[in-house]
Amino acid sequence: MNINTIGFTEKSAEQFFELLRNSNTNLLIDVRINNSSQLSGFAKKNDLKFFLKELCSIDYIHMPELAPTNNLLKLYRSGDISWKQYEDSFLNLMAKRRIEKLVNNHLLENGCLLCSEHKPHYCHRRLVIEYLNKEANFNLSVKHLY
Predict the structure, then answer these.
(1) What is the DSSP string of 56-115?
(2) Taking the model in full, what pTM does it have?
(3) DSSP state of 23
(4) Separation between Cα atoms, residue 84 and residue 33, nearest integer Å
(5) Is the dihedral of CA 23, 105, 66, 144 positive or negative?
(6) Which Pfam families does the annotation name (predicted)?
(7) Across the strands, what pairs with 3?
(8) pLDDT per residue over 32-66, tens digit each?
(9) Among the listed residues 134, 126, 131, 133, the one whose alpha carbon sits nearest the alpha carbon of residue 4
């Protein structure tokens, strides 16, 4: 099963939507906690939903259940916990939330997880896919768009 991931930072709107348009994505799954920040620019929830449909024929869904808590994110960004501690805490949070019960194959097939981080290396969107592959045996083949 194919799935993509993308972050909106360090991309112009043109680059962002071109990557999506060329990716065979049919549903963008927004895994951010907050999707309406002024810092998001073209990636604010209502604007993004409009642009995706009009420019790329891609549907949109917000799934904050696949995001870390505000407190966990704050601890990592402030340097109070390491990436490894953040990763362990987020994996435990996903297990507690039983996210494998919230998503199904139809939702993920040719979907794309959206977060803010430019690259997936230190981003929870990568961890979501790794968790689902391990815990739900989804066999997701991921392509990170950047």
Answers:
(1) I--EEEE-GGGS--HHHHHHHHTTSS-HHHHHHHHHHHHHHHTGGGT--HHHHTTEEEEE
(2) 0.95
(3) T
(4) 20
(5) negative
(6) DUF488
(7) 111, 142
(8) 998 987 677 899 999 999 999 999 999 999 999 99
(9) 126
